[in-house]
Amino acid sequence: SAVVALVFGLAFGSFLNVCALRWPVDESVFRPPSRCSGCGERIHWHDNVPVVSWLLLRGRCRTCGTLISIQYPLVELATGLIWGGMVLLHGLEVEALRGALFLTILLGIAVSDARFYIIPDQFSIRGTVVGLALAPLTPAIGTLQAVYGAVLGFVLLWLVAWAVEQAFKKEVMGRGDIKMMAMIGAFLGVDGVFLTIFFSAFLGAAIFGPISLKTGKLVPFGIFLAAGAAVAFGWGDLIVGWYVGWAFGP
User: Fold this and answer.
1) How confident is the model at residue 215 (pLDDT cuts 50, 70, 90)?
2) Mean pLDDT of all residues in the chain?
């Protein structure tokens, strides 16, 4: 079953690439069909097999030889590993589906924000709906926790953005980040919201903070929210347990 999930994830990753590249520029994910960015030639099915086609073509268009970004096979592979890994960990349970969808959405957001500095509503708002719908079907999080988490995530990050804007007199956080935080709260609940903000702030400050200060470029904070949420989802309970034991243990 994990192998089947892996294969499905590879195929879903191919679609995720399309979503992450088209939604930010308000294009349909269905029309037109996938085409080479160099010559415009339609990519046929046998050249669109996840990961395999890219390797066989050595990362180039069959028609004109234009380089095909390594992003495509990497996103496909990552999505495949996400789906296969969730089934391996949780079996054919709702929690496996919930985890796979959540991590896939986070990956799509990270790609979109890195490429366009945009977090599409299709990921954040629709993702919030998915998180709320799946919450009562798994013991990991209930309906109330999901609702509270979504509201808290939105309000808390909105307050942070407002406070920072008042201090610096300019917009430093996109509204997409705020809607994304509602989606994270819908999947992770109240505790997950706080953990995500802590992890993402730490990662952002440690990795991209110095680069931003030096170059003056806008920080794509959605990348770090996605990374922080993934850490909170996978290891949040373990990290909190370790911290409580370290801080309050004998």
Assistant:
1) low
2) 90
